[in-house]
Amino acid sequence: MVPATGVRRDGLPKLLTVLGAGNAVMYALYMGVGGLLVQSQIAAIDPADKVANVGLVAGVSAIFATVFNPIGGTLSDRTTRSRWGRRNPWIIGGALAALATMLLMSQVSTIPMILLGWSLAQAMMNIYQAALTAIVPDRVPEERRGTASAVLGVALSFGTILGTQVAVFFVADISLGYLVFGSAVVLGALLVVTLTHDPRPGEYEVVVKPRPSITDFLSALRHRDFMWVFLGRAMMILGYFMPLMFTLFIVQDYIGIPKDQAPQAVATITIVSTLSGIVATVICGPLSDRLDRRKLFVTVSGVVAALAMLLPLLWPTWTAMLLFAVVQGAAFGAYSAVDIAIVTLVLPSKEDAARDMGILNIANAGPQMIAPFIAAAIIGSLGGYASLWVAAIVISLVGAVAVLPVKGVR
């Protein structure tokens, strides 16, 4: 077991501030590069097949992200003799490798090379992410996990807005944009490894384990509480992303916003939802610490996030979409903040925290991979966007209540 020595030496406010910065630049790269720069580069190379090519690049790179997160976590878990600490080598190494992939992408000019570059970038970024995420169970006391989760939730929201807005300035110079985002991640990594204390050998118990097998790799899913949290997160993410992936088409074809105004409408929805989520995250994370009631927050906020989709389902208007953005943004922000706290409290093994957090990340990345395909099938075969809303509501409700059987968390 790794004691939280880093918290005592750093101070929790300092640790969470730096950790938030490291996460914010990570999400900025994910959203700025993956959400705008890659798509713009693909459209410039092959305008006729841009939709199919974007889908291919997004799908294949998501597989790399899903696989390399738990791999990166396992590697950092088993780094027990480094004088730099357990997580630091993989945080700074993953960041530098990600910068190298951004340099590669700044030089490519074909779809296959973009596919290779962004897939490698996802792999390296997830090594960075796995080690960074493990800092919470490593160094944050259990009674302050809700506060830590709130910080990570705000970092996600801030990074999303920052990445999207910064990327707009580099659409005309995509190569420079890649290098800016990659450099920002390296800067975030340097802040983490230089301003916080990663426990060194002698400051934690070294547990010698045999080389892991595939069975060991997925062993956490045999633990009942971990499995229910995994299932709940997967269903919530799937229900959230099914309509999200088609927001542009929803505002055009379902709400009736003119085509030339639809992109700005999507931007408005994103900003409203994100700001609403930040407010809820800041409130609900620390409040769950004070009340020591995690499951209540996750279940209620998950149910509200699901029911918010009734607004555009029953009233397909622009006003309803804005109300939906406010309500679901707040509910999903609260859900995400407290869900991270629950995740850190149901880890089967403290020694394998990064690996198991990586396994849980599959519940994030996997649904995002399959959401576009499921949503497209529903829209095309089961009655259009109204059916999509209904399916997303049902799936989200399943995710919201899946945490109720968890016994190890109140």
TrEMBL record:
Its main location: membrane. Residues 1-410 form the Major facilitator superfamily (MFS) profile domain. The keyword Chaperone does not apply. It is a multi-pass membrane protein. The keyword Oxidoreductase does not apply. Keywords: Membrane, Transmembrane, Transmembrane helix. InterPro entries: MFS, MFS_dom, MFS_trans_sf. It is found in: Cell membrane. The chain crosses the membrane at residues 12-31, 51-69, 90-108, 114-136, 148-170, 176-195, 226-250, 262-284, 296-315, 321-347, 359-380, 386-406. PANTHER family: MAJOR FACILITATOR SUPERFAMILY (MFS) PROFILE DOMAIN-CONTAINING PROTEIN, PTHR23528. This is MFS transporter. It comes from Nonomuraea mangrovi. The lineage of its organism: Bacteria, Bacillati, Actinomycetota, Actinomycetes, Streptosporangiales.
